[in-house]
Design goal:
- The structure is a single chain.
- The protein is an all-beta fold.
- The chain has strands spanning about 5-15, 30-35, 40-50, 55-60, 65-70, 80-100, 105-110, 115.
- It has a single domain, classed as TM1070-like (Hypothetical Protein Tm1070, Chain: A, Sandwich).
- Helices cover about 0% and strands about 60% of the residues.
- A hairpin with a 6-residue loop joins strand 6 and strand 7.
- The chain is globular.
- The protein starts with a strand and ends with a strand.
């Protein structure tokens, strides 16, 4: 068994702009989720905000022995502080990545999410 069933990304912030026109380099955040189990993992993402009620749960399925990259900017408006709790019905591993391309010198940040389970 690799991973756990509950993960937390507490430092969420989707940068509100990008310096270029290349869609591949647009500012964004994502959660990369790894399911090493043979069976699919059902995953719920609940997004928390400073100034409003939580959004979700957003549901997805990660096939067995596969990864899934969820773009968090698809769930959160740009320029918004947020946190996300990720709960799965079987152990997974979650990594959080932010690409901030508001300046010409892009910044990429990545870290393992907090394993709360």
């Amino acid at each position: 068994m690799i991973g756990t069933t509950t993960w937390v990304i507490s430092d969420g912030y989707v940068p509100p702009g990008s310096s270029g026109d290349d869609p591949a380099l647009a500012s964004h955040e994502s959660a990369c989720m790894l399911n090493t189990n043979a069976e699919p993992a059902t995953v719920e993402l609940t997004v928390y905000f400073a100034d409003r009620e939580p959004a979700g749960p957003h549901l997805l399925t990660i096939p067995g022995r596969r990864i899934w990259h969820q773009r968090l900017d698809e769930l959160v408006p740009a320029g918004t502080d947020y946190s996300v709790v990720i709960q799965a019905d079987r152990p997974i591993v979650v990594q959080h990545t932010r690409l901030d391309s508001r300046q010409a010198a892009n910044a990429l940040m990545t870290t393992i999410a907090f394993p709360a389970g």
